Amino acid sequence: YAAKTGHGAGPVFATGLDDHARARLTMLEELRAGLDRGELVLHYQPKVTVDAGARVAGVEALVRWEHPVRGTVYPDAFLYTAESADLMGRITTVVLDLACRQSRAWYDQGLAVPVAVNLSVSDLRDPAFPDRVGALLRRYGLPPEALELEVTESVLMTDADNALLLLGRLREMGIRLAVDDYGTGYSSLSYLQVLPVDDLKLDRAFVSRCGTDPRSAAIVHSTVQLAHSLGMRIVAEGVEDADIFERLRGYGCDLAQGYGIARPQDAATTTAWLLEREIAQKAAV
Ligand code: C2E
Ligand code: MG
Ligand code: MG
Ligand code: MG
């Protein structure tokens, strides 16, 4: 600390911290303003059935921040900071609204595509959350099947009793729930006993290696069986090529999502993609 009072070489580390804190504050200020200006947008990544038809079973909404100077900012670069500053509640509200609005537009075009939204720790701490979701569905005239909610293992573990209660209420409303990034957290088997969820989304760490690493292959295969014996669907994340898709088919995996099927795209591009698939699938029948 002595060096801090003087000038010269001493405060390098402290300056580093100050820079970090300043960058964080700047980001939060810009994020608050960006929320007011509508700079958050959603990209959508399709999920398809793991069979020759590869039918669309839904899309996942992934948030992006269209920053006026920095361009597109990805969630890993700002969600953690947002959470630490209690901004996640606002972000989820914006994301849910955009997702429901888009789902409504797709239903109106004859595309009944469920949209999945990722939740954070603060959402499952808010006892009013299920009622707010219900009100949102009513506002857009959407059935509960139009919305799916994803929670990671770490979100579940943070306040497990409360999270279980809220998830139970959401599921009673008819909303499909998924465990995200399955396999990367801990105590996964004890909560699988009680968790009111419909889908397990197996993390891409296992999926992407199942073509080359026998252990990953064994994990993917047995997790498919585990999910099925618990009455859940299994969704493989991070499917990057046709070889992995074929393997997943051999394991009996239900759904797949990944760059090899489609990258996350903006709403207009996703709509075009969905319509093209729809036409191609009708023609194939
Ligand atoms: P996630 O929910 O597990 O979403 C999947 C992430 O993997 C996305 O990254 C997606 O672009 C990426 N991905 C998809 N297919 C592939 C693939 O084949 N290979 C590889 N390498 N990556 C693939 P993204 O969009 O950067 O999102 C990262 C994480 O940020 C998400 O992981 C989710 O946990 C969180 N997130 C995104 N949007 C939201 C949101 O609206 N709210 C909350 N609370 N979290 C969000
Ligand atoms: Mg997700
Ligand atoms: Mg995931
Ligand atoms: Mg993730």
Structural description of this entry:
It comes from Actinoplanes subglobosus. Residues 24-278 form the EAL domain. This is Bifunctional diguanylate cyclase/phosphodiesterase. α11 (242-251) links the parallel β8 and β9 (255-256). The chain is built from 12 helices and 9 strands. The chain is an alpha/beta fold and 285 residues long. The chain is 51% helix and 18% strand. The protein has an 8-stranded mixed beta barrel, surrounded by 5 helices. It has helices at residues 2-5, 12-37, 75-84, 88-108, 129-139, 153-158, 160-172, 188-192, 204-207, 214-229, 242-251, 267-284; strands at residues 40-49, 56-67, 71-73, 115-118, 147-152, 176-182, 199-202, 233-236, 255-256. The structure holds ligand C2E and magnesium ion (MG) (3 copies). The site of one magnesium ion has 4 residues, from β6.
Helices, strands, pairings?
Layout: H1 2-5, H2 12-37, E1 40-49, E2 56-67, E3 71-73, H3 75-84, H4 88-108, E4 115-118, H5 129-139, E5 147-152, H6 153-158, H7 160-172, E6 176-182, H8 188-192, E7 199-202, H9 204-207, H10 214-229, E8 233-236, H11 242-251, E9 255-256, H12 267-284
Parallel strand pairs: 2-4, 4-5, 5-6, 6-7, 7-8, 8-9
Antiparallel strand pairs: 1-2, 1-9, 2-3
